[in-house]
Design a protein that fits this description.
The protein is 21% helix and 27% strand. With 472 residues, the protein is α/β, with parallel strands linked by helices. It folds into 2 domains: 21-37 and 382-471, Immunoglobulin-like, CATH 2.60.40.1180; 42-378, Alpha-Beta Barrel (TIM Barrel). Bound molecules: 2-acetamido-2-deoxy-beta-D-glucopyranose (NAG) (2 copies).
């Protein structure tokens, strides 16, 4: 195999003076293109619960800046998935997500009385803008059915969907009506040029909250999927995948799987959050469905924009590691943060709207995502990767365009020279680039040089993440 060396004069311009490299610390990352794992769907976040309204209320300059930071693949995170909330509330007060049928039409078989404001709490605006950046994956997710379809008569405070196992209501069985409702929501988006690709009908069904929430077991979710799948197919949405169940944690989603396995491929994607337990190992699925980590955040922690300080819950390096664990240890095909852009003093978002609303404050969490999201594009296949700095983490992906992207997280306190070798798959690098993220760099490009022995070398600073992209 003809091979060349890529010698990255890594960090030459910016960082070399700050790090002393010792040959003892030199390490090799071996990428094996013949070992393949999951196909990636992408990375993303959400602007639900009226967060999109906050974005939309910004000046046009800040709107553009916010959109670029989220979706631009050269100047921002390059997110490829947007998770939208399908409303269930009777009104838009507070941060409620309003329903497309706020009032009961009279019963499950009455003619529906849908209403559509064309705005959907500004989620239509964010979605249509995302389309312009090339986003193709839209996950529309209901936190609950409207209250009149549920055992507790309220879209908040738990309750279950009338008609699933163990849930009978005097008003009747609302499964078909709820399925039709979700189909109608997809149609409203289609009419404005946004193709919903994934639909979910539960959010944290293992938790009762004072906001929109609906309980469900795996079996009850399966009961509904058996109605929703044919409703989607009948409406011409054969390509729209059903996602379930956004349980609060990895283990609770695993616990729902035995009830869900009976629906087979009608379940398109398995979704789970990371709040009560983290993705440390793959969720076992009967039909090898892709698994997405669809929500995680440092919800309450005081705002920090640091990459690395005290290893606090909002720091960028920690999030680079969380994404690694989900993608490499738990084979996740997608990883989504909770909110993208929002005001307020916690880490629940990646980008903070300043209190005076005159600027945006970008956390290094966003750049941790960018390190993955810009270079691991939808359709990329995760491939074998081993070696790297001691105590570090390495991963590699083959993108649809043939490029190979390699992530090296050096969590340790010392810098080291890392050389990346691609084995198998007949891959020959013709050019390579590397990007560095640490306390002082935000996806800054490193100068690179092509050598002769098929490997790329760079100096990886302490507590940093470096992404290599090799072009065939
Ligand atoms: C992304 O950002 C670059 C650099 O600022 C800009 O030239 C480009 O137009 C942006 N892309 C989109 C789709 O707006
Ligand atoms: C990766 O993360 C670092 C740390 O914040 C950041 O400096 C760098 O710009 C990121 N790389 C990309 C490509 O976004």
């Amino acid at each position: 195999m003809a091979s060349r060396t890529l010698l990255l004069a890594a960090l030459a311009a910016t960082a070399t003076s700050r790090f002393t490299l010792s040959p003892r610390q030199a390490s090799t990352v071996t990428v094996d293109l013949t070992k393949t794992y999951q196909t990636m769907d992408g990375f993303g976040m959400s602007e639900t619960f009226q967060r999109a309204n906050q974005m939309h209320a910004l000046s046009t300059t800040l709107q553009r800046q916010a959109l670029d930071l989220l979706f631009n693949t050269t100047s921002g995170a390059g997110f490829s998935i947007l998770r939208n909330g399908i409303g269930s509330s009777p009104d838009s007060s507070s941060d409620h997500m309003v329903s497309i049928q706020p009032k009961s039409p009279g019963g499950p078989s009455a003619t529906p009385k849908y209403v559509w404001d064309g705005n959907d709490n500004s989620q239509v605006w964010v979605s249509t803008e995302a389309v312009k950046y090339g986003v193709k994956t839209f996950y529309a997710n209901a936190w609950s059915a409207p209250g009149y379809m549920k055992t507790n008569g309220n879209d908040a405070n738990g309750g279950t969907l009338c008609g699933v196992s163990g849930s009978t209501c005097s008003s009747g069985d609302w499964k078909q009506a709820f399925a039709d409702y979700l189909v109608q929501y997809i149609t409203y988006y289609k009419e404005v040029g946004v193709e919903v690709t994934h639909v979910g009908f539960l959010n944290e069904p293992d938790l009762t909250t004072s906001y929109a929430s609906m309980r469900s077991s795996g079996q009850q979710a399966a009961d509904f999927i058996k109605v929703l799948r044919p409703a989607l197919d009948k409406a011409g949405y054969q390509e729209v995948k059903i996602a379930c169940c956004d349980a609060e944690g990895w283990s609770s989603q695993q616990g729902m799987m035995s009830g869900l396995n009976g629906v087979g491929e009608a379940l398109g994607v398995v979704t789970a959050h990371s709040y009560t337990s983290s993705p440390g190992s793959p969720i076992s699925t009967a039909n090898k469905q892709p698994v997405w980590q669809t929500e995680n955040a440092d919800l309450q922690g005081a705002w920090t924009s640091t990459w690395y300080g005290s290893n606090g819950a909002g720091e960028g390096l920690l999030w680079a590691n969380k994404i690694y664990d989900a993608v490499v240890r738990a084979n996740c095909a997608a990883y989504l943060y909770w909110v993208g852009v929002q005001g307020g003093a916690t880490n629940s978002k990646l980008i903070r709207i300043a209190d005076d609303k005159k600027s945006l404050i970008v956390s290094k969490r966003l750049w941790a995502f960018a390190n993955w999201s810009r270079f691991v594009r939808p359709g990329a296949v995760r491939v074998g990767a081993s070696g790297g700095p001691s105590g570090g983490k390495v991963s590699a992906f083959k993108n649809l365009d043939g490029s190979v992207s390699v992530q090296v997280i050096n969590g340790g306190g010392s810098a080291g020279a890392v050389s990346v070798k691609v084995a198998g798959g007949g891959f020959t690098a013709k050019s390579a680039k590397a990007w560095i993220t640490d306390n002082s760099h935000e996806c800054d490009e490193l100068t690179s040089e092509l050598g002769t022995d098929g490997s790329v070398s760079a100096s990886v600073p302490a507590r940093s993440m470096v992404t290599f992209v090799l072009q065939p």
